[in-house]
Design goal:
- The protein is an alpha+beta fold.
- It has one domain: NADH Oxidase, CATH 3.40.109.10.
- It has five helices and four strands; from the N terminus they run βαβααβαβα.
- The chain has a four-stranded antiparallel β-sheet.
- The protein is globular.
- The structure holds flavin mononucleotide.
- The site of flavin mononucleotide (FMN) has 7 residues, from β3.
């Protein structure tokens, strides 16, 4: 995991700007880039079990806690999936082919920013109670 702030955050922003998306990140004061790495546990059991592919799940868990912790500290975040992983690896000096499934933009919401209306699938499409 990498934290990027200050002038470096300004230079990092283009790594998460593609096809006109995420332009607002030019004003974002900090980013957290999460690199895909196997945990020690996964490395150990991967020798026995081919299904040991948990790192993506771990990143989801980590991201959820990070954004909640940031909010608790009075910061706001935006989880970013639009990103150029090659550019990020280059920026951070990581080897070619390194994976960065998620970046988290960290800062303060723009003055007067209103949460957009949520357009969710109906609960019955995504949840079934088996009894
Ligand atoms: C995996 C993932 C990738 C996302 N990528 C972006 C992104 O690149 N740019 C963006 O503005 N929002 C992106 N979002 C949406 C914001 O993070 C979103 O507003 C936030 O997750 C709150 O979720 P909600 O709007 O569904 O409540 C992404 C969300 C997720 C979960």
């Amino acid at each position: 995991m990498f934290a990027v702030n200050g002038d470096k955050a300004k230079q990092f922003a283009p790594c998460v700007q593609m096809n006109g998306s995420n332009g607002w990140t030019s004003d974002c004061p900090a980013f957290i880039a999460i690199e895909l790495n196997r945990s020690k546990f996964e490395e150990t059991i991967a020798q026995k079990f081919t299904f040991a592919d948990f790192a993506g799940n771990d990143i989801g868990l980590l991201t959820a806690y990070l954004v909640l912790a940031a909010e608790d500290m009075g910061l706001q975040t935006c989880i970013l999936g639009i990103r150029n992983e090659d550019k990020i690896a280059d920026f951070l000096g990581e080897p070619n082919g390194s994976r960065f499934p998620l970046v988290i933009a960290v800062g303060h919401a723009a003055e007067g920013y209103e949460l957009r209306p949520k357009d969710r699938k109906p609960l019955e499409d995504v949840f079934k109670l088996i009894k």
